[in-house]
Specification:
- By secondary structure, the protein is mostly beta strands.
- It has one domain (3-135): Roll (Archaeosine Trna-guanine Transglycosylase, Chain: A, domain 4), CATH 2.30.130.
- The protein has helices spanning 12-25, 110-113, and strands at 3-7, 28-33, 44-49, 52-64, 68-69, 76-77, 81-96, 104-105, 133-135.
- The strands form 2 sheets. A 7-stranded mixed sheet has the order 8-1-3-4-7-2-9, with helices on one face. A two-stranded antiparallel ribbon has the order 5-6.
- The longest helix is centred in the first third of the chain and has 14 residues, at 12-25.
- The radius of gyration is 14 Å and the shape is globular.
């Protein structure tokens, strides 16, 4: 099930730094959670930032964890589950959506289904070319 999460205002600068690193050096992003999100490989993780849905990544792994360290910032993100994603896509026209805590599932938001690129085939071969860990935007514990 495609999911939607928010980038906290306090993490926007960190998010940009991590994004630039992945674009230049390869790798992937991750986000940690206290519970197992209902998302599977090939599905999308959309992000709300500053009141707009701005883009999404393609999920390639959901697994248990005891926390993950970001190789860009050195910060350890706490959580019991990690969602790894890559292949970032910016939306051509960001969609207004109020920020929130936790997760929203696109399937449960009919007002968004017609606005988001949900019909794009995201099942891709392979995973990111490097193992660089970029920790981004965890749910606060």
């Amino acid at each position: 099930m495609d999911m939607l999460v928010t980038t906290p205002q306090s993490e926007i600068d960190t998010s940009r730094k991590e994004g630039e690193t992945v674009e230049q050096e390869g790798g992937y992003w991750f986000r940690t959670f206290r519970f197992k999100p209902k998302v599977e490989d090939g599905e999308k993780i959309f992000f709300v930032e500053a009141g707009l849905i701005k883009g999404y990544g393609i999920v390639f792994e959901v697994s248990p964890t005891e926390g993950k360290e970001c190789e860009v910032t050195g910060r350890t993100w706490k959580g019991d589950w990690v969602v790894k994603y890559y292949n970032w896509h910016w939306l051509k026209s960001p969609i207004p959506f109020k920020g929130f805590q936790g997760i929203r599932y696109i399937e449960r938001l009919p007002q968004l289904k017609s606005l988001l690129p949900l019909d794009v085939n995201t099942k891709e071969d392979g995973i990111p070319s490097t193992n660089k860990l970029v920790g981004i935007l965890p749910k606060r514990l």
